[in-house]
Amino acid sequence: MNIRRNCILLVWFVAIVIFSVTTISNAEESPAHVAQEDLYEKAMVLKEDGKGDEAINMFNKFMDTNKDELKRTDAMLEQCMIMKGMKTPTWKTKAREAQQKVKILYRTNYMNPEYWLVYAKFAAIVNEERDVYGAFKKAFYYKPDYPEGYIVKGDLYSYLAKNTDPSESTASTAIGYEEAHVSKENSVRYQKGKEAKESYEIALRNSTLDNDKKASIHYKIGELEMNILLNKEEAIKNWKKTVELSRDSMYGKKSAELLSKNL
C-alpha cells in the first residue's frame, strides 16, 4: 500500500516539476519573441523611412537573435530589396543565397501561407511577376482571411509599379504597334499600382488591425495615389486619414508634412 502511495506521489512530483519548467521556459521565451518582432518592425520602419543602411543593420540584429529559418530568410530578402534599390552590387549574391534557402524551405513549408509571402518577395526582387501572382494565389488558398498577406501583396505590387517604366504599355508588343499611346487602360505601371491599392483596401476591411497598422496602409495608398495612380485628391484624403488614426507615428508625421505641401 505504501509502495503504491509513494509511486503516486512520485508521479505527481514529476508532473509538477515538468509543469514548472515549461511555465518558466514559456515565460522566458515570450519576451524574447516580442523583442525579435520589435526588431523586425523597427527594421521595416527604417526601410520605409528611406534609411537603408540602418534598416539592413537592424535586420542583421533580428537574424542574429532568431532561429526560425523562414523568418530569417524573409529578413534577408528585405535586405536584398533595399540593396537592389541602393544599387549595391552584392544584392545579386544575397539574392542567390536567399534563393537556395527558399528552395530548401519549400519541403517543409509548402502549406504554410507565410512561406508563400517569402516566395513572392524573392520573385518580385528578380522580376518574375508570374511567380509573384502564383505565390499569392497559394498564400490565400491556404489562408483566405489573411490581412498580413494582403499588406505584403500591396507592398510588392507597389514596389513593382515604382520599378516599371511609365512608358511601358500592354499594347506596345501587340502586332502593328510600334509606339503605343500610354493611357490608364494600357499602362503597366498604373495597373500594378491599382492591384496594390486593391490589396491594401482588402486588408483595411479586416477588424483585427489596430490604428497604427491602418494608418500605415492609408499612408501607402496616399503615396500610390499621388505617384502612380496620379490622383492628388485621393492621396490627400488618405494622408488625412493617416493623421487622424495615428498622428504621432512616423506615418502620421510624414502624412502631415505631405499635407502641408499639397493643400
TrEMBL record:
Residues 1-27 form the signal peptide. SUPFAM superfamilies: TPR-like (SSF48452). It comes from the Bacteria. The keyword Signal applies. InterPro entries: TPR-like_helical_dom_sf (IPR011990). Keywords: Signal. This is Tetratricopeptide repeat protein. It comes from Candidatus Brocadia fulgida.
